[in-house]
Design brief:
homodimer; 351 residues; alpha/beta; six-stranded mixed β-sheet; 12 helices; 12 strands
Chain lengths: 351, 351
Amino acid sequence: MKCAVCRGPAVIDLRRHNANFCADHFLKFCRDQVVRAIDEHDMIEPGERVLVAVSGGKDSLALWDILLELGYDAEGMTIELGIGDYSAASTDAAVAFAERRGRTLGRIDLRRDYDYDIPTAAAVTRRVPCSSCGLSKRHLIDRAALDGGYDVVATGHNLDDEAAVLFGNVLHWHTDYLGRQRPVLAERIGARGAGAGTRVFPRKVKPLVRLNERETAAYCVLRRIDYVVEECPMAEGNRHLRYKEALNAVEAASPGAKQAFYFGFLARAVDRFAPGADGADDDLRACARCGSPTTGDVCAFCRLIDQVGGHDPVPVELVRPRRGSRRRRAPTKRPSGQAATGARNSAGSAT
Amino acid sequence: MKCAVCRGPAVIDLRRHNANFCADHFLKFCRDQVVRAIDEHDMIEPGERVLVAVSGGKDSLALWDILLELGYDAEGMTIELGIGDYSAASTDAAVAFAERRGRTLGRIDLRRDYDYDIPTAAAVTRRVPCSSCGLSKRHLIDRAALDGGYDVVATGHNLDDEAAVLFGNVLHWHTDYLGRQRPVLAERIGARGAGAGTRVFPRKVKPLVRLNERETAAYCVLRRIDYVVEECPMAEGNRHLRYKEALNAVEAASPGAKQAFYFGFLARAVDRFAPGADGADDDLRACARCGSPTTGDVCAFCRLIDQVGGHDPVPVELVRPRRGSRRRRAPTKRPSGQAATGARNSAGSAT
C-alpha cells in the first residue's frame, strides 16, 4: 500500500477517494479538504475571529488544530454537561489541548452556572437527552460568540454527521430543516424591537463536512491529540446513530455514497426547500428574560432553565436510554432556597 | 393477540398500524388499503379496463386478485424473461392463477418473440440484469396496453419497493426521477409527428403502495394463492435490495418510518422536483423502428434488441452478479442466418 502522492509506505486507505496516504500526506489531505470546504462555501474570511465549539472529541479537536495550522485566529469554548465520567474526560481533553497549544478555552459548567445538567434535564423533561443538550449548546455557544465579538462559530460536524442528519430529515421530510441544512448558516440581524440592527445570531460554519469520522480520528491519532474515544453514554440507541448505521451499510457497499448524498443535496436539492425570500427574521424578537432572539416571548433556553433548573442531580445511570421505555418518572423539584444535596451542584443558578 | 375489529383470534400483527387482525379482517384491511390508494390518487375510474403486469410473485398476484375482488375489469400480462427455473416457475404461477380465476393472461416470451433473454442481455450489455429487464418489461407492457385498448396499466409495486426506490433517488438526488416518482403516471398524448394527438404512453398506477411486502405475502397465503417465493436470482446483491435492507433496519426500530418517508415525500416534496410545466412531451417522437415514443430516433428497446438479439443464450449461472466484478466478457453474436444452438431459442426475432 503506497501513498498516492509520494509512493512511500501508506498508513491509511480512503476507499471513497480510491487513494492511500502516508502520514504527512494524509494530514495535508485533511487540511486541504478543510481549505476547500471553507473556500467553496465562503465560511471564514482571512483575519476573522473564530470561536470553535469544543467537546473534547476527535472532531472538535481536529477542527481546532487544523484551523490553527491554517493560521486562523481560533479560540475554543466548551460546555460541561454533567454527564458523569464522560463529561469529566471530555473537559480534560479540551483543557489539555488548549494548554498544549497555548490557546484560550472558554468554559461554561451547566450545573455551576445554570443549576442543571443534561441527565437531570432529560429526566425532568422526559425527552431524549440529546434534545436539551443540543438546545443548551447552541444557545450558549451563540451567546458566547456574540458577547465575545467573534465573527464566526465553527463546529466539528463531519460528513457522517451531516449525512445522518440529512437522512433523518428526508426520512421525515422536515422541509424546514432541509431548507436550512447547509454547511454555513449566515449571521442574522435583528429586524425590529430590542436587537434591531444588531447581530442576533452569529455566522455558523462546519469546516469538516468533507471529512468523515474515521478520517478525523486518524488525524488526531497522527497528530498525537488525546481525545475522548467513548461515544456519549446518553446518545446510545438514539435515532441519529441508527441513521448513521443505515448509511454505513450503504457506504460499505458503495464507497462515496455518503459524500454523493450530502453534496448532491447541496448542489441539486437544498434550494428547493429554501424558505421564501420574505425574511423569517421579521418574526424574531428579543427574549424577555435573556435578550436572545426568539420567535416567542421567552426563548427555548430560558424555558428549559425554568423547567429543569434547581432539581437535585439525577445520575446518568438512571437516565440511560432503554429501548422500549421512553417515559420515566420525573424527579421532584426541591423547594426554592433549599440547598441541593447532589455533589455536582456547586453553585446557584446564573439566571 | 386479538383482532382489532372483531376481537377474535388474530393471525397477523401490523406494527406500523399498531393493530392485529384475524384472517377475514386482514383481507378486508388489504382491500381497504387498495381502495384508499386508488381513491386518493385517482388511479382507476369505474368501468375502465385494467391491464395488470403479472410476474407470478406475491405482489402482482395479490394485486390482480384484489382488483378482481373489488370488481374491476382486470386482465393480466406476463413476460417470460428466460431466467432459468425462476422464470419457468413464475410463468406457471401466473398461468395457474389466471386459469383458476378464468381470466385472460397475455404472454410474451422474450426468446421466442424477440430472440433474446435477460441473462444474455446482461452478458452482452455488460450491465446489471435489472437494467435490460426493467426496460423490456416497461416497453412491452406499455405497448400491449396501447395495442389492447386498456385504459390503465397496474403494477404490483408495494410500499417497500417505492420506499427503496425513493431512498436510491435521494441518495443520488436524481431530481428528474424524484419529480416523476408518484403512484400514478398520467397517460401522455403525442404532441407532434407520428402519434400526434394519440396516446403514446398509457396511464400507469401502483395500487399496492399502502401495503408492504410482508402484507402482500400474507394476503396470498390467506387467499391460498400460489406464488413464486424465491427472489429473482439475478437481482441478488443489487442496490435496490441493499436500500431495502437499510430501510428495514430503520423500520425495525421505528415502525411506520417507511410509510412516513414515502407519503411524506408525496405530501411535501415531490412537487418541488416536478419538471417545468412547459411539457417535456414536446420532445417525444415516434421510434423509427417500432413507433413507440422516444426522445431519440430509435427507442431504447429497439436499440437493446439491436444489441442483444440473436446471441446464443447465456445460462443464468454465468451471469449471476458477483460482488466486486461488474465486467464480464461479452459473448459473440452468431452470424446472421445461423441457427441458435441454445435449447431455449425456439423462434426467430420478431423485430
